[in-house]
Amino acid sequence: MAKIQMQTPLVEMDGDEMTRILWQMIKEELLLPYIELNTEYYDLGLKHREETLDQVTVDAANATKKYGVAVKCATITPNAARVEEYGLSKMWKSPNGTIRAILDGTVFRTPIIVKGIEPCVRNWQKPITLARHAYGDVYKNVEIKVPGPGKAELVFTDENGNETREVIHEFTGPGVLQGMHNTDKSIRSFAKACFNYALDTKQDVWFATKDTISKKYDHTFKDIFQEIFEKEYKEKFDKAGIEYFYTLIDDAVARVMKSKGGFIWACKNYDGDVMSDMVSSAFGSLAMMTSVLVSPDGFYEYEAAHGTVQRHYYKHLKGEETSTNSVATIFAWTGALYKRGELDGNAQLCAFAKKLEEATLKTIESGKMTGDLALITTLDNVQKLSSKDFILAIRETFDNLD
Ligand code: NAP
Ligand code: MG
After folding, report:
1. Pocket of ligand 1 contains residue 372 by CB under 6 Å
2. Which of 72, 76, 94, 226 is deepest in the core (most CB within 10 A)?
3. What is the overall mean pLDDT for the chain?
4. Which ligand is nearest to the CA of 130?
């Protein structure tokens, strides 16, 4: 059979450790035999980030702006141990942070639902998509360790030099201080990204902050969402039969646990960081969570929600067999290929992406899976496969479909 052609390159960002190994296997076994893969390749592996003084990350983000769609492998965010391990000249920033800072936008994380992996929360019947604001708050904070007594103030100086001041605290002894910010522009694009995604996927949006306590900061988020919803989306939502619902974050957490699922939960940056891990592990596994960064300008970057699975990589390096789940990484590829196909009007590419997803889920449903899923599945007759054998099993299912 002739391979599927691609008109526009997909931006490919390679990564680190075990996911880098999976990346190669996925390409060799599941993509290259079927597609004339047209990618612009950026190696975000830590070694190459060091060699390029992290310029490669910036280049990859800019390429995403140029072409519109990217797929990214998990990457190491350096800490002190990694600086030593890789002999880094600098503790390079998180690639995801760098990419988000360039593209702006919102991260949508959705669990992959498959028969035989049941959520811990019995009443969750449909996936809950977590929409995480990817800019500002505590992720762009400044902090001071207060050594002893003194007055802490919040000062804003406008362009003309006029100052607005608020006393934060009169310290009588040592303590800590933190300043953070967000911008109306970023909050607006967050709101729009959530509402657009809701219309795309025909799901309600829930949004929650702590506006009763944070009467200016969080309240601004609430007000901007409400204003944009009423001005630009209310009619479209009515037509689509979906709703926008605002509540307090603690109330939202309680309601989410009692819900049936099937909605988008919009969270501020920190809430989204924390809650997405809760939602994904309650749905079964961190290895079954997809993630897409949607920028306000319509750029998309797809990845798995988990990290580089370091522990498995060290086993792999020792020559031991691993059973690392490649599903979220496969779905990062299929998500990106589908979006590329959609933008280029390439129906064959879209159909391929859907078929590969179907083959992946069918493989698990037939009892063939990696160790993380074998531990929690409700299926009988389970075969725990190695990283490679699982990918080969998917290929076999794929070839026998239709
Ligand atoms: P991790 O790679 O997500 O793995 C944590 C643990 O979760 C693993 O040890 C494994 O548990 C389980 N796990 C995660 N993904 C799995 C998969 N696909 N299949 C099977 N089990 C899976 O997190 P980490 O070990 O804390 O972080 C490793 C590196 O990843 C760090 O350098 C971090 O900076 C980076 N990271 C990158 C991203 C990203 O690029 N998006 C996100 C998070 C972390 P068991 O060991 O019990 O089998
Ligand atoms: Mg996190």
Report:
1. yes
2. 72
3. 95
4. 2
Q: What's the token pair of residue 8?
A: 């526009």
Band of residue 286 on the pLDDT scale cut at 50, 70, 90? confident
Alpha helices (runs of H) in 110-233, residue ranges in sequence order: 184-201, 217-228
Q: What's the pLDDT at 201?
A: 87
- Rounded Cα distance between 153 and 151, Å, is 7
- C-alpha–C-alpha distance, residues 209 and 196, integer Å: 20
- Tell me, what amino acid is at 235? E
CA distance 250 to 257: 11
Please give the distance, rounded to the nearest whole angstrom, from the Cα atom of residue 319 to the centre of ligand 1: 19
pLDDT at 334: 98
Torsion-angle region of residue 240: left (phi > 0), alpha (psi -120 to 50) or beta? alpha
pTM higher than 0.85: yes
For the CA of 305, the nearest atom of ligand 1: 41
Model confidence pLDDT, tens digit, residues 127-175 = 999 999 988 899 889 999 999 999 999 999 999 999 999 999 999 999 9
Calpha distance 355→397 (Å, rounded): 10
Alpha helices in 264-386 (DSSP H): 269-283, 310-317, 327-344, 347-365, 371-374
Distance CA 402, CA 397 (A): 10
Cβ within 8 Å of residue 317, ≥6 positions away: none
Q: Tokens for 327, please give them.
A: 């599903």
Burial of 156 (0-12, 13-18, 19+ CB in 10 A): exposed
Please check the confidence at residue 295 and state whether its pLDDT lies above 90.
no
Ligand 1 proximity of 100 Cβ (cutoff 6 Å):
no
- Asked if residue 329 has its Cβ within 6 Å of ligand 1, the reply is no
CA count, 13 A, side-chain hemisphere, 284: 31
pLDDT in tens, 2-30: 999 999 999 999 999 999 999 999 999 99
- Mean predicted confidence (pLDDT) in 350-373: 97
Tell me if 290 CB under 6 Å of ligand 1.
Answer: no
Taking CA atoms only, the protein residue closest to ligand 1 atom 22 is 287
Asked if pLDDT for residue 1 goes beyond 80, the answer is no
Name residue 289's beta-bridge partners. 111
308 Cβ inside 6 Å of ligand 1: yes
Distance CA 375, CA 378 (A): 9
**φ and ψ at residue 371, rounded to 5 degrees:** -55, -40
Residues 20 and 386 sit within 8 Å (Cβ to Cβ): no
